[in-house]
């Protein structure tokens, strides 16, 4: 039987606990989610039949503020996966010093099989089922895999109907017309680019001499690929769920973005239009092949557990930036470390999404809205500051960037948990 994703995530916590001084009470609390909800969502399909979908919402820890985390629609969604993602969100919010806790939600469904009407009914049905579990001061969902601003708009509207009042702050990642924030749709990829730029500067390698492969050309992967292309990096390979393309001299990322949008398939990029002529000597490759390319930077931006003990020895990249959540298992981490590969963790690299979601929540509650330039400047300032702090911790303690990120987050979480009282407090009788 495959190990639990949450158990594997907890291995990272155990490593970091060796380098911080927090109470036993705090470390014990962080091993378990605060609350988990499993719901059934009946949906009337367009042909009149009824299907019931399984949905989940997990609030992992709310010591530092209302919980925050996305909702994913995917066939592989399980309670264990959602708990693990909520765990990571807890540490991500603490690492970025956001006044939020960690949560996550999901529905086990292949959304590509649903019509637009069925998708709306499922989205509203999910909110009907979890409405008492969320709220602007309790738990604030956001988009994730296969959810988008339109779906978030439906969900916010359904919550407002249930509560009989407009409640924009209950959901982030909404359309701008419904209280969304400028820059939210590109925040994960933009934040990842800011982190990569700041940390690669420590190694003194010029962008034009740096090759990059991006696994997962979705909302986040395509954005970071475009930023890298514009900054002069040589993006030699990208892939999506159907497969990937590789050109050692570099890919024309803007053209690939255009054709991906129009055809909904990355493989179609080289089968039609001017891109076929603009990139020569390209080749088609699988996601597995992309991971093992001889490049400077590898960016896993797809799903969990892409690099495992089975393929970690084949990784040739010198630096890995985790734009996806949990793309590397803890066993693979150990192998990559012995190979001298720097792994910059998801709880830092992909934190741009939750940071701008936090900005959206703040704007909704204040009624004051910021420009795209203001949002990106705030995002860059926050995420680069934390990235540099985490790098300094890694250097000072001679630990991996991942463990350093957990140490950074644990110090903040430990202080907040300890403030509520610990064993020492009660034993001393103060």
**What sort of overall outline do the alpha carbons produce when their principal axes are compared?**
globular
Proportion of residues in extended strands: 15-25%
Q: What letter string, H or E per element, gives the SSE order? A: HHEEEHEHEHHEHEEHHEHEEHEHHHHH
CATH superfamily of the domain at 187-349: NAD(P)-binding Rossmann-like Domain
Number of helices: 16
How would you write the strand order of the largest sheet?
Answer: 9-8-7-6-10-11-12
Oligomeric state of the chains present here: single chain
Describe the structure.
The protein has about 425 residues and is α/β, with parallel strands linked by helices. Among the domains are: about 35-170, Leucine Dehydrogenase, chain A, domain 1 (Rossmann fold); about 185-350, 3-Layer(aba) Sandwich (Rossmann fold). It has 16 helices and twelve strands. A seven-stranded mixed β-sheet has the order 9-8-7-6-10-11-12. A five-stranded mixed β-sheet has the order 1-2-4-3-5. A hairpin with a 5-residue loop joins strand 1 (about 35-45) and strand 2 (about 50-60). It is globular and about 55 Å long.
């Amino acid at each position: 039987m495959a190990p639990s994703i949450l158990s594997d995530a907890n291995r990272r916590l155990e490593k970091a606990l060796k380098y911080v001084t927090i109470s036993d009470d705090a470390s014990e609390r962080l091993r378990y989610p605060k609350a988990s909800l499993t719901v059934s969502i009946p949906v009337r399909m367009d042909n009149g039949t009824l299907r019931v979908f399984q949905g989940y919402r997990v609030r992992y820890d709310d010591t530092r503020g209302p919980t925050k985390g996305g909702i994913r629609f995917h066939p592989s969604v399980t309670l264990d996966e959602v708990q693990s993602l909520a765990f990571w969100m807890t540490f991500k919010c603490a690492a970025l010093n956001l006044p939020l806790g960690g949560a996550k939600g999901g529905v086990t469904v292949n959304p590509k099989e649903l019509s637009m009407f069925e998708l709306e009914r499922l989205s509203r049905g999910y909110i009907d089922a979890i409405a008492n579990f969320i709220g602007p001061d309790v738990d604030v969902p956001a988009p994730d895999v296969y959810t988008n601003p339109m779906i978030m708009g439906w969900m916010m509207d359904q919550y407002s109907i249930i509560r009989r009042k407009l409640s924009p702050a209950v959901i982030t990642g909404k359309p701008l017309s419904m209280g969304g924030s400028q820059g939210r749709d590109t925040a994960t990829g933009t934040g990842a680019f800011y982190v990569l730029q700041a940390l690669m500067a420590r190694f003194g390698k010029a962008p034009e001499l740096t090759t990059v492969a991006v696994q997962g050309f979705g909302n986040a992967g395509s954005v970071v690929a475009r930023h890298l292309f514009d900054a002069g990096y040589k993006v030699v390979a990208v892939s999506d769920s159907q497969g990937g393309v590789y050109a050692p001299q570099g890919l024309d990322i803007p053209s690939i973005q255009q054709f991906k949008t129009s055809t909904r398939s990355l493989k179609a990029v080289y089968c039609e239009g001017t891109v076929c002529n603009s990139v020569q000597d390209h080749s088609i490759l699988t996601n597995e092949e992309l991971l093992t390319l001889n490049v400077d930077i590898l960016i896993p931006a797809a799903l969990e557990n892409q690099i495992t003990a089975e393929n970690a020895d084949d990784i040739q990249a010198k630096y890995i930036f985790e734009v996806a959540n949990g793309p590397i298992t803890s066993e693979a981490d150990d192998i990559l470390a012995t190979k001298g590969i720097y792994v910059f963790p998801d709880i830092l690299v992909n934190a741009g999404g939750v940071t701008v979601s936090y900005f959206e929540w703040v704007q909704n509650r204040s009624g004051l809205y910021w420009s795209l330039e203001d949002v990106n400047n705030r995002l860059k300032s926050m995420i680069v500051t934390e990235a540099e702090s985490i790098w300094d911790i890694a250097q000072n303690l001679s630990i991996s960037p991942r463990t350093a990120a957990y140490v950074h987050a644990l110090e903040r979480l430990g202080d907040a948990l300890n403030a509520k009282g610990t064993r020492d407090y009660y034993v001393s009788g103060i």
